[in-house]
């Protein structure tokens, strides 16, 4: 059972070459990352990429095939030893919420506080109810709560014993979009208030951006990149990260200098050495906000489709070579499909992948 | 005309109300007899037999209740939540004892365990002891009846609690683990309380069967309500006293029904989680696994394998088998069961469609009322059927005599009509349940989309409903068929003179101490009863596959 004394200290988490799988089949292959104490990390990836399996391994529900997991400097999982979940002091919020339907809200939250004295446990329950904005709901039953309220109770229940680390497995996927938008920043501020290290698993990048200090992008059982939201968007390490995060197109280009390439939209000068050999053929990552509508430009493209986004238009434009790219334009620039418009490219750091 | 419209009266809803009225006749008759019966009968019953009946019936219920819980819940937990060799086989094999009617397993074990049986004979040969030299379990006793009923009734608890364990949000137990609970603690604090309503439902079903049992207790000479009712009715021809006893039995049953309804209500309220079977089963160590395997194997062995093998052996090598007579019995049983099944399913269709099409309170109540007979022991239904039919018969006879001067025989009460009527009362709930289950899966939006696609209501019925309902109708026919085949007390009371079925003949032979000769008929019943059990098992193993 959880000890009271170990409370209030956020812990860091280190995964070293963790491989998870069963029946001889690898689901997560040799993964490593570090999460600093008090930070919120995110495992982001498409469904079936192994992110939930990795989370369950951290919680102690999946044994490791190799590698090790450390929390606060203490090894909790290796291929040989597996500390049972109940002795890890790691809290978890599940996708299906999984409140205990036969217990009240208060009893649910107090469920993990068995070793606390009664008044202390009650104080903790009150504190958490207030924190998640459900003061007065103590003696209600879960079935009488809305989805968002149930999710808040689940969070409070997981945080109640002051775990060293909080894991959240797609906690918002059962909620509608509007509720999610409200809940995500709330939960982030609750976690910061409790100074709790946490890991969120999601397939929704907007959720990851709104919640996490550090994002690990996963695909096919591997972490492709771990970094800040800014880094994974603007400096994607692999082609998968580049295409999974945000909108983006790969524009064929030829290297024409240590920090310069030549493409359908002309010569582009970067501000950093890109490290590719001269005349190498590469794919250049361009985001919709990198290509701008400019009537004076010598480069033109034909509009294939368009979306009105309020503050701007998003155009899909076909270039002379037949390559199709996204382009942002001010919402005053209303052009019709089939029209030709001038384009310029604004890129400072070049993100390129060899063909 | 206004009230007429308001009632939304139609042929279908009228038929439903009429069926319900007919089917609740037997219970009304018993209740009326309880009320109008005079105090003297009551006084007499109280002084003579009532205390013994209450005592024995209560003791039987307590014993069977504890027994089915001790077998049903742990086996359900092991096969649904733990992983050990043989689990998948055990998950469905644990249902097999359901194929045995309690009275058949009772006299099979009597044949095995009594003084002249193979077990005691073997002991005497090995030790040289004689009669009186040693103690041996007397199977013809209250304890024996308990044991027999436990062996065939635990599957009710097993089925219900297994479903409950599987339906618990798989993450529930994992949440408990992350909050510091070990597996056994999580089971005690969460899984068990969550499954409690379902377990109670299974328990009440088993106890209703215990109360309804006639064959076992009669054969073992344990005096309970069911044996007492028939003895009073037959032996003394005392309808009032028999009805009074039936009334007390009804009280017991009512308590159980209320308990069952209440816990069903709680099941609905307890299942708010989204089902997601992502968690993996708890792996058991080698010795734990072996123990689990043996524990689950034991009820299958005692409740099915041993008695089935013994019956088969008797039937093949020992029994006096007269083909003609046996074929006659089988034919009687089968056509009676088939006829009952057809009647029951047709009426269930009428009731279900009335309930679906007319949301009127009277129709709704009629559908509910029609299923009530399932909770009633066959003995009560038999008396409730015989009394009004005999009265009606005499009226008809008098009437015919008055107008034509001719004397005719019994038209209703001494014929198959009475038997079929009693079966309809007793098994309407089974048939109704299966049909309604199928009909419930046909969403009203399906009807509507078919109509918008240009089908008239007849075409909706034949092209949408019939194909979708086919499976449910066949299930209903099958279950009713088997239930009728196994039914003993009502058949015993209501059958026409010299008309025998497999169940009745097996029971008679066994009562005449011709256990071995009863084997062919018994084996036949068990084999046919296996069919729905195997169907049920198959749906269980598909659960197993989907929750891996």
TrEMBL record, chain A:
The superkingdom listed in its UniProt entry is Bacteria
Concerning SUPFAM superfamilies, the annotation shows: MOP-like (SSF50331), P-loop containing nucleoside triphosphate hydrolases (SSF52540)
Query: Under the cellular component aspect of Gene Ontology, which terms does the record hold?
Result: ATP-binding cassette (ABC) transporter complex
> What Gene Ontology terms for biological process does this UniProt record contain?
quaternary ammonium group transport
Keyword set for this entry?
A: ATP-binding, Cell inner membrane, Cell membrane, Ion transport, Iron, Iron transport, Membrane, Nucleotide-binding, Translocase, Transport
Tell me the CDD domains matching this sequence.
ABC_Carb_Solutes_like (cd03259)
Q: What is this protein called?
A: Iron(III) transport system ATP-binding protein
> Which species does this protein come from?
Marinomonas aquiplantarum
Q: Which PROSITE patterns does UniProt cross-reference here?
A: ABC_TRANSPORTER_1, ABC_TRANSPORTER_2
Q: Name one Pfam family in it.
A: TOBE_2
Q: Where is the ABC transporter domain?
A: 13-245
Q: Name one GO molecular function term.
A: ATP binding
Q: Does the keyword Protease apply?
A: no
TrEMBL record, chain B:
What InterPro entries does this protein's entry cite? MetI-like, MetI-like_sf
> SUPFAM superfamilies given for it?
MetI-like (SSF161098)
- Which Pfam family would be a valid example here? BPD_transp_1
Q: What keywords appear on the UniProt entry?
A: Cell membrane, Membrane, Transmembrane, Transmembrane helix, Transport
GO annotation terms (biological process):
transmembrane transport
**Gene Ontology cellular component?**
plasma membrane
Domain ABC transmembrane type-1 intervals: 54-257, 330-536
Q: Where is the signal peptide?
A: none
Read off the CDD domains from this record. TM_PBP2 (cd06261)
> Where do transmembrane segments lie in this chain?
12-36, 56-77, 89-109, 139-159, 240-259, 290-314, 334-355, 367-391, 411-439, 460-482, 518-536
> How does this chain sit within the bilayer?
Multi-pass membrane protein
Record's subcellular location: Cell membrane
Q: Which family does it belong to?
A: Belongs to the binding-protein-dependent transport system permease family.
Protein name per Swiss-Prot or TrEMBL? Iron(III) transport system permease protein
Q: List the source organism.
A: Marinomonas aquiplantarum
């Amino acid at each position: 059972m959880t000890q009271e004394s170990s409370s209030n200290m956020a812990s860091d988490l280190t995964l070293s070459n963790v491989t998870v799988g069963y029946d001889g089949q690898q689901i997560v292959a040799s993964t490593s990352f570090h999460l600093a104490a008090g930070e919120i990390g995110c495992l982001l990836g498409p469904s079936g990429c192994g992110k939930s399996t990795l989370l369950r391994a951290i919680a102690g529900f999946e044994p490791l095939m190799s590698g090790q997991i450390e929390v606060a400097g203490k090894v909790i999982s290796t291929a040989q030893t597996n500390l049972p979940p109940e002795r890890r002091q790691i809290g978890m919020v599940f996708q299906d919420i999984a409140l205990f339907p036969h217990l009240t809200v208060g009893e649910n939250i107090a469920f993990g506080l068995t070793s606390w004295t009664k008044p202390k446990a009650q104080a903790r329950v009150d504190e958490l109810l207030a924190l998640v904005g459900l003061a007065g709901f103590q003696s209600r039953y879960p079935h009488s709560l809305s989805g968002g309220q149930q999710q808040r109770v689940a969070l409070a229940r997981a945080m109640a014993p002051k775990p060293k680390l909080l894991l959240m497995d797609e906690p918002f996927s059962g909620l509608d979009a509007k509720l999610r938008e409200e809940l995500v920043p709330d939960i982030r501020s609750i976690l910061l208030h409790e100074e709790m290290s946490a890991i969120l698993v999601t397939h929704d990048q907007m959720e990851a951006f709104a919640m996490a200090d550090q994002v690990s992008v996963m695909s096919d059982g591997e972490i492709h990149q771990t970094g800040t939201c800014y880094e994974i968007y603007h400096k994607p390490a692999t082609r998968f990260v580049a295409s999974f995060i945000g909108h983006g197109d790969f524009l064929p280009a030829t290297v024409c200098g240590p920090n310069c390439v030549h493409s359908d939209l002309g010569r582009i000068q970067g501000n950093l050495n890109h490290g590719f050999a001269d005349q190498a053929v590469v794919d250049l990552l361009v985001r919709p906000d990198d290509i701008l509508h400019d009537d004076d430009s010598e480069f033109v493209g034909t509009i294939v489709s368009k979306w009105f986004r309020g503050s701007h238009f998003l155009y899909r434009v076909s270039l002379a070579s037949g390559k199709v790219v996204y382009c942002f334009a001010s919402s005053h620039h209303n052009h019709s499909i089939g029209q030709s418009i001038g384009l310029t490219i604004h890129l400072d750091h070049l993100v390129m992948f060899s063909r | 005309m206004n009230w007429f419209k308001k009632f939304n009266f139609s042929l279908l809803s009228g038929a439903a109300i009429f069926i319900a009225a007919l089917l609740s006749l037997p219970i009304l008759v018993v209740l009326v007899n309880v009320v109008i019966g005079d105090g003297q009968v009551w006084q007499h019953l109280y002084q003579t037999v009532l205390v013994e009946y209450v005592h024995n019936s209560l003791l039987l219920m307590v014993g069977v209740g504890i027994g089915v819980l001790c077998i049903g819940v742990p086996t359900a937990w092991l096969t649904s939540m733990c992983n050990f060799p043989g689990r998948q086989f055990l998950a469905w094999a644990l249902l097999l004892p359901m194929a045995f009617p309690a009275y058949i397993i009772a006299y099979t074990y009597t044949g095995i365990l009594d003084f002249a049986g193979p077990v005691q004979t073997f002991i005497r040969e090995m030790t040289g002891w004689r009669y009186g030299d040693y103690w041996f379990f007397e199977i013809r006793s209250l304890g024996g009846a308990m044991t027999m009923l436990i062996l065939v009734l635990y599957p009710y608890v097993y089925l219900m609690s297994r479903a409950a364990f599987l339906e618990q949000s798989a993450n529930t137990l994992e949440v408990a683990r992350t909050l510091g609970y070990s597996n056994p603690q999580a089971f005690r604090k969460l899984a068990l309380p969550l499954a409690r309503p379902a377990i109670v439902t299974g328990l009440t079903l088993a106890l209703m069967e215990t109360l309804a049992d006639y064959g076992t207790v009669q054969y073992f000479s344990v005096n309970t309500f069911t044996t007492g009712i028939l003895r009073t009715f037959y032996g003394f021809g005392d309808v009032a006293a028999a009805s009074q006893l039936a009334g007390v039995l009804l009280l017991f049953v009512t308590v159980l029904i209320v308990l069952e309804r209440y816990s069903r209500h709680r099941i609905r309220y307890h299942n708010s989680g989204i089902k997601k079977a992502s968690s993996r089963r708890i792996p058991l160590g080698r010795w734990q696994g072996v123990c689990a395997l043996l524990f689950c194997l034991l009820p299958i062995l005692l409740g099915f394998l041993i008695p089935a093998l013994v019956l088969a052996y008797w039937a093949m090598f020992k029994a006096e088998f007269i083909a003609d007579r046996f074929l006659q019995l089988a034919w009687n049983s089968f056509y009676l069961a088939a006829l009952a099944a057809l009647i029951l399913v047709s009426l269930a269709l009428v009731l279900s469609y009335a309930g679906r099409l007319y949301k009127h309170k009277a129709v709704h109540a009629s559908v509910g009322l029609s299923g009530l007979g399932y909770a009633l022991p066959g003995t009560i239904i038999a008396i409730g059927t015989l009394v009004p039919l005999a009265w009606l018969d005499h009226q008809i006879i008098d009437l015919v005599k008055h107008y034509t001067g001719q004397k005719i025989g019994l038209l209703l009460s001494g014929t198959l009509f009475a038997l079929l009527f009693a079966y309809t009362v007793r098994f309407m709930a089974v048939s109704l349940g299966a049909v309604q289950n199928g009909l419930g899966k046909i969403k009203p939006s399906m009807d509507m989309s078919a109509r918008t696609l240009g089908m008239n209501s007849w075409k909706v019925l034949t092209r949408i409903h019939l194909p979708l309902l086919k499976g449910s109708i066949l299930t209903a026919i099958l279950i009713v068929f088997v239930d009728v085949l196994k039914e003993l007390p009502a058949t015993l009371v209501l059958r026409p003179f010299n008309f025998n079925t497999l169940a009745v003949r097996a029971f008679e032979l066994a009562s005449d101490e011709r256990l071995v000769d009863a084997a062919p008929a018994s084996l036949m019943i068990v084999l046919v009863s296996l069919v729905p059990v195997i169907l049920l098992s198959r749906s269980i193993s598909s659960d197993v596959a989907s929750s891996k």
